[in-house]
Design a protein that fits this description.
Layout (H helix, E strand, L loop, with lengths): L5 E10 L5 H11 L3 E7 L2 E8 L1 H14 L5 E9 L8 E3 L20 H8 L42 H8 L20 E5 L9 H10 L4 E4 L4 E6 L3 H11 L7 E3 L3 H7 L4 H8 L5 E5 L16 E5 L4 H7 L5 E5 L11 H7 L6 E5 L11 E4 L5 E5 L8 E3 L7 E3 L9 E4 L2 E4 L9 H18 L5 E5 L5 H8 L4 E5 L1 H12 L6 E11 L5 E10 L2 E8 L2 E2 L5 H4 L1 H13 L1 H11 L4 H12 L6 E2 L2 H11 L11 H11 L12 E4 L6 E4 L1 H13 L3 H25 L5 E5 L6 H13 L3 E3 L11 H14 L5
Parallel strand pairs: 2-5, 7-13, 9-11, 10-14, 17-20, 20-21, 22-29, 24-28, 29-30
Antiparallel strand pairs: 1-3, 1-4, 2-3, 6-13, 7-8, 8-12, 9-12, 10-11, 14-15, 16-19, 17-18, 18-19, 22-23, 23-24, 25-26, 27-28
Helix pairs in contact: 1-2, 13-23, 15-16, 15-17, 15-18, 16-17, 18-19, 19-21, 20-21, 21-22
């Protein structure tokens, strides 16, 4: 292969920093006898190569298939270079000049190689709580800026010992340039303190486990923030945590030591097992197994349980010997998760009996991600956060600098760069100052990492959303206001990687409509460039406005008022929902006069109304509770659903083609109650009727000339029974169903759609 030497320069972009990419390049180049260098730069990874032309070409062919498992190569730019006759191949220090273009790595669960060392009594990192390597450990949560080097992470305060430094400097070592590399001699350490912050002597892990065994609440500083933990089989402990956290009946997630432990409490199909064991380690919602023996207060009245496996060595140490530990976010209800030691002692002081602390700073907090496996065996998100954020979603054609600020609930935001939307971790519900400040911190951090300043901001049309106010206050940017359900449609379309017009079933609780009413049961025709509203659920009054979200019986009054009149509403709600005739009458009369009773077409509020009608839930303590409990009853029916075959389709008013009338369904439910039909059977019938009605609406829209693709989006699609039945009905009608796969169908995916709509606005003449 001797002969004239050639030279090339490769610029590789994508997730190529902090994932073992440079050592891979080093080994491949050395194996081919090529000379040159590789280094991190703000653009990605730059590779300079010299050698025979045939070997240079072979290197370029083999590189994409040789990259480590965590890497993601997006582009390889090849530039000619001048051969200088250099000898050997070297890994150079990172460059800092230029704008940041590299992908930010996400946090990764402990890899098998580290687990083997962790379990080996002869290894110097035996049972070390912070063991990691190039293939695993903290990433996003410890990064200050890019390029991703130790000096720009929270590990910079820990000076490597000679043995760790030797690993860090050796390109042949698994820990070469593993930025969080550490050992018991030179790395982070643990400390247990009591509720007042006083140190507790002895082995921190042993003492922390004793706290859990006594039934007390332990606050744990983990990877992306604090968890609050108790023994999941200790009923008084779980109830105590629930009361202190002001959790209401909202389910807790639990952590099991291994998949075998999961199988003792939950059904674990192969698809869910793969998700649980993946490097991203989300919480996975699973059906309870027959042997489920956790405290009922873990997930009261819920046939499912959210389960995760340990994703750090610290979690592995704590969960040993327990069937399961409740592992819930370290915060009070609706507040951001605590991440700093002092902050946790103040904010969680009334919640925890002891604190297991460490001294590796968390620069960006990150809640656990939550997923489920749908009827087709594919993973779907409830919450996209740790292990996924800030991994981008492709958004081809989107210009740099679009900031989409998301919604008010389950907030996430995104920034566009290089034809991609970089989504934040879960921020939360923007109903308090703490979460709004957390939003601002997360955005500032994301801008710094991406090197992108917003020049266009996309927000919801609702004028009173905190995110809408934030958009108005930004200086020097153009604003694109996006209707809530148009954003849902565009999000699902972008998520599926497709373009063009689709039918969009956008089903949720609340979305500000262009006519000033509350939408939520919509059939749209459109794309990211625009939409037309084809159909809606028949509107009804929402007595009390936001109060109806907390008190589903109010939605029932509104539905009955629209269908049967005031007398029926008062008698039925007062008697069945248990609120009393006098109170029901006052609410109904005010709604009749339009006093604080906006019109809504929300399917989510119809679910609430039926949940109250069937005496399943008349007061809500967490978002979606009434619908969750209605679905649980329907799933447990064990019988063919009773009731009409579908919502009735009637001619629409105004520009609408048609509406979906719940009147006949409501009559059937009332008649079933009068005959003594059990609530689960009626709940199952309701689900079947809703799914059949919306599937029929899509079929008619397609027959009238609409496309054969249907996207499903909105918070109601968190209902797995409804999602499955809708999909079956649409496929039976010959329609192609597009579902969310990379972002949640709920408002956690809204920012992606806002960004897509803003990009389309810019393609067609600029922002508003």
């Amino acid at each position: 292969m001797a002969g004239a030497r050639s030279a090339v320069r490769l610029i590789v972009t994508g997730r190529v920093q902090g994932v073992g990419f440079r050592p891979t390049v080093y080994r491949l180049a050395r194996s081919l006898g090529l000379a040159g260098t590789v280094c991190n730069s703000s653009r990605g990874v730059r590779i300079e190569l010299e050698g025979p032309a045939a070997l240079l070409e072979r290197f370029q062919r083999e590189l994409p298939s040789a990259v480590p498992s965590l890497a993601r190569v997006e582009t390889i730019e090849v530039e000619p270079a001048e051969a200088t006759g250099r000898a050997g191949f070297a890994i150079l220090p990172s460059e800092q000049a230029g704008s940041a273009r590299a992908l930010i790595p996400y946090d990764v669960a402990t890899c098998d190689a580290c687990l083997a060392e962790f379990a080996d009594p002869e290894d110097r990192r035996h049972r070390y709580p912070f063991i990691n390597c190039t293939l695993c450990g903290p990433r996003y949560t410890i990064i200050e800026s890019v390029p991703y080097d130790r000096a720009r992470t929270s590990m910079k305060r820990f000076r490597l010992c000679p043995r760790c430094q030797a690993e860090y400097d050796d390109p042949a070592d698994r820990r070469y340039h593993a930025q969080p590399n550490a050992c018991p001699v030179c790395g982070p350490s643990l400390e247990l303190v009591d509720a007042a912050g006083r140190p507790v002597g002895g082995d921190p892990i042993a003492r922390a486990r004793a706290v859990l065994q006594r039934g007390e609440v332990l606050a744990i500083r983990g990877l992306g923030g604090f968890h609050l933990a108790v023994d999941a089989r200790n009923a008084p402990a779980v109830e105590r945590l629930r009361a202190r956290k002001r959790r209401g009946p909202k389910p807790f997630a639990v952590m099991c030591p291994d998949p075998q432990g999961v199988e003792r409490i939950a059904e674990l199909p192969p698809s869910a097992r793969r998700l649980l064991l993946s490097e991203r380690r989300p919480i996975v919602l699973l059906d309870r197994a027959a042997g489920y023996d956790l405290a009922e207060a873990v997930a009261p009245g819920n046939p499912r349980v959210g389960v995760m496996l340990p994703y750090t060595p610290l979690h592995l140490l704590l969960v040993e010997g327990f069937r399961a530990l409740v592992m819930t976010s370290g915060n009070l209800a609706e507040e951001p998760i605590a991440k700093d030691n002092r902050e946790a002692l103040v904010r969680l002081g009334g919640l925890a009996d002891a604190f297991l602390l460490h001294d590796r700073d968390i620069l960006m907090s990150c809640d656990d991600s939550v997923c489920f496996v749908d009827a087709g065996g594919a993973p779907a998100f409830v919450r996209r956060s740790r292990g996924y954020a800030p991994d981008p979603v492709p958004l081809p054609g989107a210009p740099d600098g679009i900031l989409a600020v998301g919604g008010e609930m389950k907030n996430t935001f995104c920034l566009t760069r290089d034809g991609q939307a970089f989504l934040s971790q879960h921020v939360g519900d923007l109903g308090n100052l703490e979460t709004s400040e957390h939003f601002a911190r997360c955005l500032s951090h994301m801008q710094r990492l991406l090197g992108v300043a917003p020049r266009v901001v996309a927000c919801d049309m609702h004028p009173d959303y905190e995110t809408s106010r934030f958009a108005r206050e930004l200086e020097g940017v153009e604003i694109v206001r996006v209707q809530h359900h148009h954003a849902h449609l565009a999000s699902a379309l972008a998520d599926s990687g497709q373009r063009g017009e689709v039918l969009g079933l956008c089903l949720d609780g609340t979305g500000y409509g262009e006519d000033g009413t509350i939408w939520g049961g919509e059939l749209l025709l459109g794309s990211d460039a625009g939409y037309r509203r084809l159909a809606r659920l028949r509107p009804f009054r929402l007595p009390g406005g936001d109060a109806a979200v907390r008190h589903p019986w109010r939605s029932l009054v509104g539905v009955l008022l629209e269908h049967g009149g005031a007398q029926a509403a008062v008698e039925t709600a007062g008697r069945i929902a248990g609120v009393g005739v006098q109170r029901a009458e006052a609410v109904a009369r005010a709604a009749e006069r339009g006093v604080n009773a906006p019109w809504t077409s929300s399917l989510g509020r119809l679910f609430d109304a039926v949940s109250a009608l069937l005496s399943i839930c008349s007061r809500v303590d967490y978002d979606g509770q009434a619908a969750v409990e209605l679905e649980a009853q329907a799933s447990a029916a064990g019988a063919q659903p009773a009731g009409p075959s579908a919502l009735r389709i009637v001619p629409g008013r105004g520009e609408l083609d048609f509406e979906l009338d719940y009147g006949p369904l409501l009559d059937e439910l009332l008649a079933g109650l009068a005959r003594g039909v059990e609530a689960p059977v009626l709940a199952a019938g309701f689900h079947a009727a809703v799914a059949a009605g919306f599937a029929e609406a899509c079929r008619r829209a397609h027959e009238a000339g609409g496309p054969d693709r249907v996207v499903l989006s909105g918070g109601c699609l968190m209902n797995r029974l409804l999602d499955r039945q809708l999909g079956q009905g649409l496929e039976a009608a010959g329609l192609n169903v597009l579902r969310h796969r990379q972002v949640p169908a709920n408002d956690g995916g809204l920012c992606l759609g806002q960004a897509a709509v803003a990009a389309a606005h810019m393609r067609h003449g600029g922002a508003e």
